[in-house]
Design brief:
By secondary structure, the protein is of the alpha+beta class. It has nine helices and eleven strands. The protein folds into three domains: about 110 residues, Beta-Lactamase (2-Layer Sandwich); about 90 residues; about 140 residues, Heat Shock Protein 90 (2-Layer Sandwich), CATH 3.30.565.10. About 45% of the residues lie in helices and about 25% in strands. The protein has a six-stranded antiparallel beta sheet with strand order 2-1-6-5-4-3. It has a five-stranded mixed beta sheet with strand order 7-8-9-11-10, with helices on one face. Strand 4 and strand 5 form a beta hairpin. The longest helix has about 50 residues. The radius of gyration is 30 Å and the shape is elongated. Its EC number is 2.7.13.3.
């Protein structure tokens, strides 16, 4: 028993986590050396946490004060918060509050610095995104190479063969037939070029806006995949910043491409509307679905990651709901007045 107590005492004194033993809500009975160092470095006032805390991370925002668990002292609950260094810098911490003697009002507050963990997560995130960008670029180059070789090059080569045949023709009817054939082949080639240009960047998105660009895309999508798209929106003629319109178009494009590949569905619903606070994009299918809990970053995984990144770059919220045999919903909300006071 004495050995166990001694080990606990050593752990308490040597651990890097700051441990406060509190009487009531703010009176410090004792604290370990890490907690004492924290008090020296940070603006900490246990009587009023709002004087030193710069918000905590909720399910909806990176930093907020709404529903603060630390202020309410919710027992046995862990959460992330940001503390103010005396030099002005904000540092992320994991916090937990445990009531160990309710009658005496004694509790334990533990704070752990998350700077290194978040730095590691950020590096891994950047690595994943870099790999995605490289793979996406290479896949796009492969796709363009195949389309140029199998489509445009073949079409032009066939037209060239037909053109060379003319010098050996002696009848007017043969000339006219050959010219008609070349006219048809060149028209097909021009249509292929136009479709490739639209895939790379639809001019309607810049000229007419997101509503017209999506309408045109859905028409091509239905022809290509045979999947009917129900598009509901009252935003005809409404324009948004170019970054927002591009994001909405690419997220829709990625979601519908995934549905065509994996959902085994005959119809997709797309809703685009605006509320007082945000622009909302909702994409629903009743396909085979999947379990997000067992989702891995393979196949369409990086595509979904790309959608999420695009949305979050504009301070938006991205939500994916899916269950096996229950279909999939993609929900995007972009604030009209973004979080942090920046304009869209």
């Amino acid at each position: 028993m004495e050995i166990t107590s001694e080990l606990f005492r050593k752990a308490y004194e040597q651990m890097s986590d700051a441990v406060f033993l509190l009487q009531g809500k703010s009176e410090i009975i004792t604290s370990n050396p890490a907690a004492n160092r924290l008090l020296d470095q940070y603006e900490v006032n246990l009587d009023d946490f709002c004087t030193f805390c710069n918000g905590y991370t909720s399910n909806f925002e990176e930093r907020t004060c709404l529903g603060c668990s630390l202020r309410k002292r919710v027992d046995n609950e862990s959460f992330q918060l940001f503390l103010n260094l005396k030099v002005g810098k904000n540092i992320p911490f994991s916090a937990s509050y445990t009531l160990i003697d309710e009658k005496a009002g004694i509790s334990v507050l533990i704070l752990r610095n998350l700077t290194q963990q978040q730095h590691t997560e950020q590096l891994l995130k950047q690595k994943t995104m870099t790999e995605y960008v490289i793979n996406a670029q290479e896949n796009e180059r492969k796709r363009l190479s195949r389309e140029l070789h199998d489509g445009l090059a073949q079409g032009l080569f066939s037209t060239l063969i037909e053109l060379r045949k003319i010098k050996y023709m002696t009848k007017k009817e043969d000339y006219e037939s050959s010219l008609s054939e070349m006219d048809s082949m060149l028209a097909t080639t021009l249509e292929d070029i136009r479709n490739m240009a639209i895939e790379l960047r639809p001019s309607s998105l810049d000229d007419l806006g997101i509503f017209a660009a999506l309408k045109a895309y859905f028409k091509r999508y239905e022809q290509l995949f045979g999947i009917h798209v129900v598009f509901v929106s009252e935003l005809y003629g409404t324009r948004f910043p170019a970054s927002v319109e591009t994001m909405l178009y690419r997220v829709t494009q990625e979601a519908l491409t995934n549905a065509a590949k994996y959902a085994d569905v005959g119809e997709i619903e797309v809703y685009l509307f605006k509320t007082k606070q945000s622009i909302v994009l909702e994409i629903n299918d009743q396909g085979i679905g999947f379990s997000p809990d067992h989702f891995t970053a393979q196949g369409s995984g990086l595509g979904l990651l790309n959608m999420k990144e695009r949305v979050e770059l504009l301070n938006g919220d991205f939500e994916l709901r899916s269950e096996p045999q229950q279909g999939t919903k993609v929900l995007v909300r972009i604030p009209i007045e973004p979080k942090g006071g920046r304009t869209t």
